[in-house]
Amino acid sequence: MAPTPELVESFDDASPGELVESMISRPDFGPTIPDLEEGSDFAGPSEWWMSTMHDDRAGFHERMVWFWHGHLTSSIDKASAPMMILQHRLLREHALGDFRTLLRQITLDPAMLRWLDGDGSEAQAPNENFSRELMELFTLGRHSGAYTEDDVVAGARALAGYWIDGDRLVFEAPRALRRDVTYLGTRVRDVDDVIDTVCDHPACAPHLVGRLYDHFVGGDLAPSRLGELSQVLVENDLQIEPVVREILLDPSFVDGPPPRPRAAIEWALAFERLIGDRLDVWTVQALGQMPMQPPNVAGWPGTDRWLSSGMLLTKGEIALDHSWDVETLDETDPVSDVLRRAVLYEVSDDTLTTLDEVARSVDGRRERATLLHAAVAMCPEFSTI
Amino acid sequence: MTPKMSRREMIAWLAAATGAATTGSVLLLDRPRSEPLGGAANGGRRATTPASAPGTAAAPQAVGVDPTADTSDRLLVVVELSGGNDGLSTAVPYGSGAYYDLRDHTAIAEADVLDLDGSIGLHPNLVGLHERGVGIVEGIGSMQPDGSHFEMQQRWWAGDSDLADTTTGWIGRLADTLRPGGDTTTAATALSVARGAHPIIRSATGSTISMPGTDALGAVAGAIEDDDRMRWVYQRALRQFAAGATPVSTAMSDGIAFADQMVALGLDDESATELGYDEWGFGASLQFAAAVFDGGVGVRVVHVETEGDYDTHEGHAYRHPELMRELDTNISAFHRDLERRGLGDRVMVMTTSEFGRTALENASGGLDHGTASTMLLSGPGASGRLGEAPSLTRRDDNDDLVATAPFEAYLGGVVEGWMGVPSSEIFDPSIAPMPLF
């Protein structure tokens, strides 16, 4: 999620293809997932995941898990800590695997049932929340015109009948559908039918591709390219890894993916690397991106929301507060030293001038270390990726 | 020989970037803003004279709005109720039998309603609003309703059901229009009390700003003790970073200019605790808005979101009352705050919400996404039933309420009737603004 200088420099002689291949093929590094008890600390899962993302071994797989957690969203605001951990295991297992399996499992996942009110929904007057978001956000997209309000209701009916009893998932036939309904032009009766119907729908692959492309690249996606990428997804039976590889190896990326503002979590993780220390999870929440606490079912805001005066000033206080204990510097060229820790290899002359002036303005080694780290964290280049 | 990539490229791939929002307004590092603000980051801006000193005795509140009044010092607060607020629970049509037919579990008993006109009344928790007087605007929605939060929010934020152009939000356009003659000496004409950049304040001339509260201001403009050279060096560095022309630098310089003005006015306000605001969330946001207005720094429109989630798919009967309490407690405290600052007759508070809820309940004691809802106006002279109630019996094909006025007419009615800006300058000229004042 935030590369180290060593990792970047290791690719000095690599081609883009080699870099991407190396990145994608690094598997889940297999962190130890805690077994949290019912009633345990609200921040526990988020803290654990932050430390996992901070780990040097966390790579592309971690980014994929982050993508899914923002796509198939749930939040610690409504689900318990153990439930969020359980859902997290699901995302880790299937992050680059089979989408249909992931979708089916998350539909009956306790955190998701709580979050989108599937828990206790009854077919005769169902809760429409999950059914709508299943189509609008998770699989088909609103703009495809693929579904109607009638489909939302029909889907809700077919998905009903489940509830969570303590820690068990329970299905009660009396609460569920008694006969088939028409959903997206197909007759369906239960969860499996609904999942298969949305996955097989022609709007599903393009929607998933759109979300993946938006997350990893951003900007406009030409319809022809969208078609090509959707084809890859369909031909691979909705396996995620092949299409992600295709997206990252787009021939138009002559200079790499285009620059954009860093999301709060990215800035936080990069800042942790810079200072060689951890931020506490409440600080990350203050920045607006506490893992496992997305603001709503659409997940995290788009890129342009992260560039604002409010974000910058919030970071400003955090940067200075947390740079007090940083390691002292290579005194022969402290500015270059900190820039390398920040993984900033190309900065403007103006930024360099400002940093040089900071270095000259204080006498003590500790003060200089503090100020340079805080200042680098606030330079325009550090807010961009 | 394998080509070498630039380090920047490597980093971009390694960090596997998250993408731009789909609205197409990605700000790239090398694309400067269309209208650069004058002067260096900490030059070229001066605070306007504060309207009044905090702590002066409360002026008597105006009882009505004079249509010939000078609107040039009027202020507006837009309170967004995110998730979709149930209009029928907010302004309860208790005089209609149909209301009780529709709502087995979520109906509010006639005896509990705070009566307005003998057939409709306010939710029992809207005590303060009821005492002060409030205008209710029923039947507001989209003439082509959509059940998606995100679609409807985008329409409301853009102030346009057709979403023809989302590069500006309606508050951004209003701020562009209100900003006196291209004057770039004010830091911002509209404020979104938030950390991130809200689409509702997207503007063409950079006349708006996002700021979460007073805490954020200390980093760049906080007081520096005499011996705190480190903090002085740091603030100087931030101001130097802000002097560039890139979007990041510009956002930084806007923030610094705003912070300088606010900090110069002094932000400690201990008596605010007696006013009854909730300490954090919505209460803190309104408290900040009052301080910003009082500071006279040029902000005339503030956008705030409430803390609670209005998306009551389940448990509506126990969730909605707390939402109403949060709304009433903090708006009432806000009015008291404005009065003690001598601003009581200048500020109108309006609510917005992307849609109402289903007329019928689901089996989870909840209400799903609906259509028309009831908006509230709280301020000098705002009172009465200002919209046309939607029919509870003649509903649409999904059994939902049919809106009686498009939301642009409501927004336009406030913009024109309260702020004195013709609705046609901000919204579709073919939609007539509602007479609300």
Keywords:
heterodimer; A: 385 residues; mainly alpha; 3 domains; two-stranded antiparallel sheet; 19 helices; globular; B: 437 residues; alpha/beta; Alkaline Phosphatase, subunit A; three-stranded antiparallel beta sheet; 12 helices; 30% helix
**Main interface: chain pair and counts:** A-B, 100 and 86 residues
* Overall CATH class of the domain at 75-214 and 269-425 in chain B: Alpha Beta
- How much of the sequence lies in strands of chain B comes to 5-15%
* Strands of chain A, count: 4
> Could you say what the CATH topology of the domain at 75-214 and 269-425 in chain B is called?
Alkaline Phosphatase, subunit A
Give the H and E element order of chain B: HEHEHEEHEHHEEHHHHEHEEEEH
How far do the termini of chain A sit from each other?
Answer: 11 Å
Rg over alpha carbons of chain B: 23 Å
Beta strands of chain B, count: 12
- Uncertain stretches of 5 or more adjacent residues of chain B: 16-65
Low-confidence stretches of chain A: none
Average pLDDT over all residues of chain B: 85
- The number of distinct helices of chain B, counting runs of at least 4 residues, comes to 12
Question: Helix count of chain A?
Answer: 19
Order of helical and strand elements of chain A: HHHHHHHHHEEEEHHHHHHHHHH
Return Rg of chain A in Å. Answer: 23 Å
- How many domains make up the 3D coordinates of chain A? 3
